[in-house]
Amino acid sequence: MNGHFIxxxxxxxxxxxxxxxxxxxxxxxxxxxxxxxxxxxxTRGRGRGNHTWWSDQGSLTFTIGIDPIxxxxxxxxxxxxxxxxxxxxxxxxxxxxxRETIRLRWPNDVEVxxxxxxxxxxxxxxxPHGGRxxxxxxxxxxxxLDAAPLEIRRMATSLMQQTSGHxxxxxxxxxxxxxxxxxxxxxxxxRLAEDDPGLAARxxxxxxxxxxxxxxxxxxxxxxxxxxxxxxxGALRLGTxxxxxxxxxxxxxxxxxx
Length: 258
Prior knowledge:
SH3 type barrels; seven-stranded mixed β-sheet; globular; single chain
């Protein structure tokens, strides 16, 4: 673990939600930022919108809590934190999985060969000490996907599956993976604060939706088009009959990605 970056670390076995626990820490001033709350399993983990994050004892779930101002992040950077985090996850996972098989699925998932291996949930929390960012991360390490709901089994994979189990013990892998993610996260956040164009180029190059037909659920309407990359601002570039549209929110419908 990078002790120079993380100031407060709480490691748990099973929790309802690492984001909720991290929120308690930062709101109540129970530890200095950056805060890390990690667990093997969440019972009420959340995804984007109304989605939940399913996990078992083979998962690595954790939340990093940071003071954005202390890291040079401005308000306009915050919508891109999930993308910067995804780049960090890919760099960490590439120690075990061939880099060319790992992609970023806008706006907050990481996939291997089209199957989800990790998800990211960023949240902003107001505290008596100022605004804080919570970045919730879930990674399938040795997750027993046979026990997962059918929808998850169809779209997910794990580190153990992708390495055919040819890695050291799951607990050792979890510890080393967590340390690598933290190190790469620190680098990505620094690059984001510096407006490093190389970081934006990375998430554009890693875009899993490029040149693919997409249906995007915006709530009141569904847009259709072709993925044309990810803008430096973090927006999805969607090619439509009316030209390129920059989209900052919405849910890409997975039934189009078979």
